[in-house]
Amino acid sequence: MGKWFPSIYDMAMRPLEKTKFNKIRKTLVNQAIGRVLEIGSGTGMNFPHYKNATQVDAIEPNPLMDEQALKRMERSRIPIQTYLVKAEKLPFADNTFDSVVATLVFCTIPEPMKALQEIQRVSKPNAKILLFEHVRVDKALLGKTQDVLTPLWKKACDGCHLNRDTLELIKQSNLSVMEVDSYFNGIFLTIKCLNET
Ligand SMILES: C[S@@+](CC[C@H](N)C(=O)[O-])C[C@H]1O[C@@H](n2cnc3c(N)ncnc32)[C@H](O)[C@@H]1O
Hints:
binds S-adenosylmethionine, alpha/beta, Rossmann fold
């Protein structure tokens, strides 16, 4: 894991703060209510956008990401607690959360199906699962380009798979997909799910 990645990532994200990209992030995060679990919170880019949550438990396995997140956590209006753990093994009891948020993270999680099972386990019945992810595009040339670039991209970008089909993985899980919106030629999706089990 590159030591430089958290700083570069934060620097790359900051110019997007006033763009459509950030509006999508903000609109999605705003929909999280009650006790919220955030998966792979990174440098805390979502922390300023929690307006309707009562409490956020944010998990992030990279301690270097966490250092940057602390500053945003201190400025937040709602209580946020961070945990240095992975999504594949969550330290929470069954049926704990009203909402789960994951942005730009399922591309990087080594075992995404295990993470989805854990999210489902710790979510209350009918909890909202809100994701904003980049995915493999369903167009021959662009999709193939993502496949070819992925091995190099993974090395440069902290394990990120450019070509991960996160929507398909969710459809194979026990979560129910309620709404999907596509942005930037289908490279980015917001995916809203319910834990109906
Ligand atoms: C591209 S960053 C996104 C950060 C943040 N969610 C955002 O929207 O800016 C991906 C994050 O996923 C985290 N990550 C990697 N493996 C993970 C895992 N197994 N469980 C949870 N998070 C993980 C990385 O450490 C990194 O902070």
